[in-house]
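One such given next:
>
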Amino acid sequence: MKIKEQLFSAHRDKADVSSVLEVPQGATELLVLAHGAGAGMRHRNMQRIAEAMHREQIATFRYQFPFGERGGGRDSLEVTLSTVQRAVELAGLLEPKLPVLAGGHSFGGRMTSIAASNGQLSNIKGYVFFAFPLHPRGKPGNERAQHLPDIRSPLLFFTGSKDPLFTPELFEPIHQQIRKSATIHTLDSVDHGYRVSKRSRQSDEDVFGEMGRLTRQWLAGLSI
């Protein structure tokens, strides 16, 4: 495993932020992985997502948003999207031979999707969204997904069947618009933070292992 940690400039008006590149032996793709609103790139779930990808020979580039680096409230949308854009650009420069995927957990995935729909990201093989937050808790809607049809690359969604931030019926109208490019996998008995209801889960497979395995299968389908 090759590991490289470094700071990079997320926005002209902000201090540099941290990143970690991890490249397993035989890596075939590189996933640029953004963290959620409540925890940074070193959160246990972010690490477990990265480890699951590594087992499937997918390198990862995790990075901090400025608010995650310093603590405190979230940054403006301009700063956040600039961070996504610059992270993707840096990852591509660090591993120029690997096709780039982009995405993230919850807020990080949503911000990546907005940057993609704005045309701020280029040369992306596909997008992977872990626990995409379709709406705030207790406030059902699908406004947060209205931009998804503007993304031209393939999309992969992992959503828990017990995720209170994702109502499948509300996502369906969006899904109808992107069904040719989008793959949605429901994680049985899993909530927004990947906690598992063991009483109702049908599979013995580790949730993170499941996401890694299915990401590799999805990538194989893109190569056909």
Q: What stands out?
A: The first strand starts at residue 2 and ends at 8. Residues 67 and 205 are 34 Å apart (CA to CA). The two ends are 28 Å apart (CA to CA). The first helix runs from residue 44 to 55.
